């Protein structure tokens, strides 16, 4: 079987606590992402989503475990991975435009100044920043505008992997919708792979091929990989009429409201080291019809799976 584009193997993050018990944020988190997939991760605040993303970006290290992208272990940052952080992380002394050209120049050292400017303007216009705003420094922009610069900067370097940490959180509903549409347009016309943190279940269903669900911390883990098999192109006004939409939505909401906590209280192997566990693949859209097809995303035929995590009649677990 072809290797996945991104492999996360038995990732654990612990923070030492002098004089007390170490804080284990998450333990033995394992999942795969295929090339070109759009994967969202959802979980309650503090379960470790941003930490996982920082490890994928090469900006933080796990206590144990490994991340492999395109067959190479991730050991530091790279222009192959573009990151949009919750807090923008712009260079404060540079204008919005120069924040974008900086990355484009690093990515394409052979390009002329004109090529770099043209390319950077294209992405700034895409996020609605033109007409003079592009010459302002981050401190002269609103939170939403700063976030848009950060999005333009990440998209403009056209990385193989886009890592997005609640990228639309600071945006008003209209801009959010426009940039979500642009993200889908850019992603679907490329071979880019996207890993995105969001707290918004509707946004995740609209955008993702799969949604990873994390249990609450400490000792958080990725419990399920929920397949969003709603056909594309998707449209936010029409998606709610898809027969699977509310089954998926209810499954996600129920996980966040009830099961994320209940599962966190069940430590799987209390009397020994935990084995790496890949999340169960779940297809809630097929729950009434019975089983899903079992093909495709993230599954490894023959591999041990965790026991079903919810009653079988409420969902279809791929065996
Ligand atoms: N330097 C640190 N020392 C100790 N604990 C830390 C440190 N950095 C993060 N943590 C803890 O790690 C846990 C995970 O943090 P993280 O930001 O990854 O969570 P998250 O799921 O992204 O949360 P949110 O949804 O609120 O952004 C939190 O409990 C946090 O307090």
From TrEMBL:
Residues 265-274, 297-319 have a biased composition (Basic and acidic residues). InterPro entries: AAA+_ATPase, ABC_transporter-like_ATP-bd, ABC_transporter-like_CS, ABC_transporter_ATP-bind, NO3_transporter_ATP-bd-like, P-loop_NTPase. Its main location: membrane. The keyword ATP-binding applies. One of its GO terms (molecular function) is ATP binding. GO terms for cellular component: plasma membrane. Residues 265-319 are annotated as: Disordered. Gene3D superfamilies: P-loop containing nucleotide triphosphate hydrolases. Keywords: ATP-binding, Cell membrane, Membrane, Nucleotide-binding, Transport. SUPFAM superfamilies: P-loop containing nucleoside triphosphate hydrolases. Belongs to the ABC transporter superfamily. This is ABC transporter ATP-binding protein.
